[in-house]
Amino acid sequence: MEFSKVSSLALACLMAVALALRIADCNLEHSGGPYGENLAWGSGDLSVTDAVAMWVNEGADYDYDSNSCAPDKVCGHYTQVVWRNSVRLGCAKVTCNNGGTFITCNYDPAGNVIGEKPY
């Protein structure tokens, strides 16, 4: 199958799976690909639902009016999850070589555009 004929959603899923398999050693390194990307790691069996909940919980530290995060806090995972223009999503989960769980979710188009608000 030619990648040009694969839907964007299917391609995002394929990219998520490929990334998860590539880094089954649990090195949390972004792929540098064209998609927005959230990564999570947990010891034991972390679920995708739990990973997304962790990212969404960052919203408590996000201030929409100033489009910024509280000092010493991280909000970029949250803003990618809620990014209004990201309409396709692909996630993958893999058990790491050390027994932990690695989860990656890819968003298309990518969010977190500098100077833009997520919604």
UniProtKB/TrEMBL annotation:
It holds the Pfam family CAP. SUPFAM superfamilies: PR-1-like. Gene3D superfamilies: CAP (3.40.33.10). GO terms for cellular component: extracellular region. Keywords: Signal. Residues 7-115 form the SCP domain. It comes from the Eukaryota. Residues 1-20 form the signal peptide. The keyword Transferase does not apply. This is SCP domain-containing protein. It comes from Hibiscus trionum.
